[in-house]
Amino acid sequence: MARRNRTKIRKIRAVVAYVPPVDATPERLAKGDDSEFVDPALIDPREQPIGRVRRFRSSTLDRLHKAGQLNWHQWYAGECYRNAHARAALAPSVTASYGERTTVGECSYGLARTEAQVRARQFVRQCREQIPFEMRGFMDRLLIHDDLPRYGGRQYYRSLAQIRDTLDALAFYMRICA
Q: Which of 147, 80, 86, 74 is nearest to 116 (CA)?
């Protein structure tokens, strides 16, 4: 049998002088804030790559308005509808609501808990009546879920015209000056 010649590769490590961690200022220590301080110098991009990056993006409605494809009245009508839907709390909440007092065994069964939710739900229902029936699902995907299908060519402009017409109807109902 032939003998293999194995060579060892040595990793050369750079010698780094010890730097004591940076402590908080005396003023901050006097306030009693014991939050953990992270020294940015300790984060070495060669050894500790940052795995997650938060990217903020604007909604489709905001991008259409910024591109000049929607006017201010149409954008504002869509924004009011989106905010009213959020205030109405129509989707069931998966988190506990710590600030509200309920008696033992009380179930809401989807009923509104506050007067503001009742008014917001009435407003959302009245706004939905102004939207043509065939456009309700499409507008909910656009305004509430921010999920607009991507079309190209004539279909994109046709759907954009339908969005404009629907938002004009909402703006007229909300009495937003045109």
A: 86
Are the beta carbons of 98 and 88 closer than 8 angstroms? no
What's the pLDDT at 58?
Answer: 82
Q: How many domains are contained in the chain?
A: 1
Is residue 106 one of the residues assigned to a domain? yes
Query: What would the pLDDT profile of 80-109 be if each residue is shown by its tens digit?
Result: 999 999 888 877 666 666 666 555 555 556
Distance between CA atoms of residues 175 and 119, nearest Å: 17
Domain that residue 68 falls in: 60-173
Rounded average pLDDT over 3-24: 64
Distance CA 69, CA 72 (A): 10
Amino acid at 110: G
